[in-house]
From TrEMBL:
Organism listed in the record: Telmatospirillum siberiense
Name by which UniProt lists this protein: Adenosylmethionine-8-amino-7-oxononanoate aminotransferase
Reaction equations catalysed: (8S)-8-amino-7-oxononanoate + S-adenosyl-L-methionine = S-adenosyl-4-methylsulfanyl-2-oxobutanoate + (7R,8S)-7,8-diammoniononanoate
Cofactor: pyridoxal 5'-phosphate
Protein purpose: Catalyzes the transfer of the alpha-amino group from S-adenosyl-L-methionine (SAM) to 7-keto-8-aminopelargonic acid (KAPA) to form 7,8-diaminopelargonic acid (DAPA). It is the only aminotransferase known to utilize SAM as an amino donor.
Length: 429
C-alpha cells in the first residue's frame, strides 16, 4: 500500500460537503501565497473563493504568520474562565470600536456556527433573565444559512441542506427575503411584501430575528438592499425583539464597508463573526453583543450568567491573527484594493449582462455573482464552468447555477480581469 498523501486521504479522511464516491480525488495543497494555491502536482491556482470565504489579505500573509508565530512562542492557549490575555482583550476592544453603537461586548467561540448558537442562546436567556419568559420564538429569512450545528441549522433550515435531520430541528418561522440584482425594477414591491410578512410574524413572543445582512451566501449569493435591512430593524425594534446580524461571511470588508451593518446604516443587537475574523488563518468565532444585553446577565446568582463556553474560547493564536488582520484591513492599501475589486466587478459584470447569456447580475463590495440559468445544487452547468476555470488555473466553486467571485483582497487587477475573461469564454458571452 502506498503512503502517498492521496492514498492516506482516500483511506482515512472524510471530506465536508462531498460525495466521495463520485467526486474527483482532492487536490493536494502544499503551499499558498497571496491569491495563489500551489498543488503537489505542480499547479498554481488563483483562489477565487478565498478558501470558503475565510481569507482576506492573501494566503500565508507574512504579517499574520509572524504574529501567530510570535504568539505561539509566548502563550499558545490558556483556559478562558478565570483568565484573560492581551490578544483577547485588545481584539475585543478593537471590534467594539469598529462596530457601531454600543456593540461593545465580545463573546468568543470557535467558528461561525458557534457564533450563531451563542447569539440564539443569549437571546433566549436574556429575556428569561428579565422575567420575560414568554419570548421564546425565533424568526429567520427564507434562504438564510447560519451554519451546520443544530441551532444554526434550525434558523437556516430553508437553505435546503438539512433534510437528513429535519425531525431534530426546532421550529423557526421563515419570513420572505426580497432578493435583488442590478436593474431589478420590482424590488420596492418585493420589499413591501416581505416587510408586511415580517410584521405579521412578529409579536410579543418573539425573542430574536436573525438575518445575513446584504447577502445570503450559501443559498446562492442572494443580495438584498440596505433599505430592506433598515425596514427589518425598525419593525424588529418596535416588536421588542432582538435583531441578530450574521456577519460570518459579510464581515471584515467583504461588502466594501468594514461590516455590512455599517454599510446598511443599522445597529443590530448582536453581530456574529467568524471566517475573516482571523484573516483566514485560524478557526475562531465571536458574538458581539450590545452592552445592555450583557448587563442582563449580571447578578448574584450563577444561574443568571451565560453558562456556555468552548475549550479553545479566545485562543491566543486566533486573537493574535485577528489583531494583525485588522491592522491590514484598516490600512489605506487594503481599502484601495477593495474599491478596485468592486469597480472591476461592476464594469465586467455590466458588460457580460449586456450579452444576454446570464441573469440577475449583482455586486456588493468584493463579491460579484450571477445566475447561469435555473436549477438546484446539482446543476451541471455550474460544474462545467468550474472545470473550465480549473483548466485555466482558477479555483471557482459555483453554487449550482450561481457563479460568484469572492477573491482575497490582494488579488491583482490583471488576474481578476483574467477571471472575468475566462467566464466570458466559458459561457460563450
Ligand atoms: C459559513 C457561515 C456560517 C457557519 O460558519 P462555520 O465556521 O462554517 O461554522 C454561518 N453563517 C454564515 C452567514 C456563513 O456564511
Amino acid at each position: 500500500m502506498s503512503d502517498s498523501i492521496l492514498d492516506l486521504d482516500r483511506r482515512h479522511v472524510w471530506h465536508p460537503f462531498t460525495q466521495e464516491q463520485t467526486a474527483p480525488p482532492p487536490m493536494v495543497a502544499v503551499a499558498a501565497k497571496g491569491a495563489s494555491l500551489f498543488t503537489e502536482d505542480g499547479r498554481e491556482l488563483t483562489d477565487l473563493v478565498s478558501s470558503w470565504w475565510v481569507n482576506l489579505h492573501g494566503h500565508a500573509h507574512p504579517v499574520i504568520a509572524a504574529a501567530v508565530a510570535e504568539q505561539a512562542a509566548r502563550l499558545e492557549q490558556v483556559i478562558f474562565a478565570d483568565f484573560t490575555h492581551a490578544p483577547a482583550a485588545r481584539l475585543a476592544a478593537r471590534l467594539a470600536a469598529l462596530l457601531p453603537g454600543d456593540l461593545d461586548r465580545v463573546f468568543y467561540s470557535d467558528n461561525g456556527s458557534t457564533a450563531v448558537e451563542v447569539a440564539l442562546k443569549v437571546a433566549l436567556q436574556y429575556f428569561g433573565n428579565r422575567g420575560e419568559d414568554g419570548r421564546r420564538r425565533l424568526l429567520a429569512f427564507e434562504g438564510g444559512y447560519h451554519g451546520d450545528t443544530v441551532g444554526a441549522m434550525s434558523v437556516g433550515r430553508s437553505s435546503g441542506y438539512f433534510r437528513a435531520w429535519e425531525g431534530l430541528l426546532f421550529p423557526v418561522e421563515m419570513a420572505p427575503y426580497p432578493v435583488t440584482w442590478i436593474g431589478d425594477a420590482a424590488i420596492a414591491e418585493k420589499e413591501a411584501v416581505a416587510l408586511a410578512a415580517l410584521e405579521a410574524a412578529l409579536g410579543d413572543d418573539v425573542a430574536a430575528v436573525i438575518i445575513e445582512p446584504l447577502i445570503q451566501g450559501a443559498s446562492g449569493m442572494r443580495m438584498c438592499r440596505p433599505e430592506f435591512l433598515r425596514g427589518v430593524a425598525e419593525r424588529v425594534r418596535k416588536a421588542g425583539a432582538l435583531l441578530v446580524f450574521d456577519e460570518v461571511m459579510t464581515g471584515f470588508g467583504r461588502t466594501g464597508a468594514p461590516f455590512a451593518c455599517i454599510k446598511a446604516g443599522v445597529t443590530p443587537d448582536m453581530v456574529c463573526l467568524s471566517k475573516g475574523l482571523t484573516g483566514g488563518f485560524l478557526p475562531m468565532g465571536a458574538t458581539v453583543v450590545r452592552e445592555p444585553i450583557h448587563q442582563a446577565f449580571l447578578g448574584e446568582s450563577v444561574r443568571q450568567a451565560f453558562l456556555h463556553g468552548h475549550s479553545y474560547t479566545a485562543n491566543p493564536l486566533g486573537c493574535a491573527a485577528g489583531l494583525a488582520s485588522l491592522d491590514l484591513l484598516l490600512g489605506d492599501d487594503c481599502r484601495a484594493r477593495i474599491a478596485a475589486i468592486e469597480a472591476i466587478h461592476l464594469e465586467r459584470l455590466g458588460a457580460l449582462a449586456k450579452g444576454g447569456k446570464i441573469r440577475h447580475p449583482r455586486v456588493t463590495g468584493t463579491i460579484a455573482a450571477l445566475d447561469l440559468g435555473e436549477g438546484d445544487y446539482a446543476s451541471s452547468l455550474g460544474g462545467k464552468v468550474r472545470k473550465a476555470f480549473l483548466d485555466r488555473g482558477f479555483l471557482l466553486r459555483p453554487l449550482g447555477p450561481v457563479v460568484y467571485f469572492l477573491p482575497p483582497y490582494c488579488i491583482e487587477p490583471a488576474e481578476l480581469h483574467r477571471a472575468w475573461d475566462t467566464l466570458e469564454t466559458a459561457i460563450g458571452g
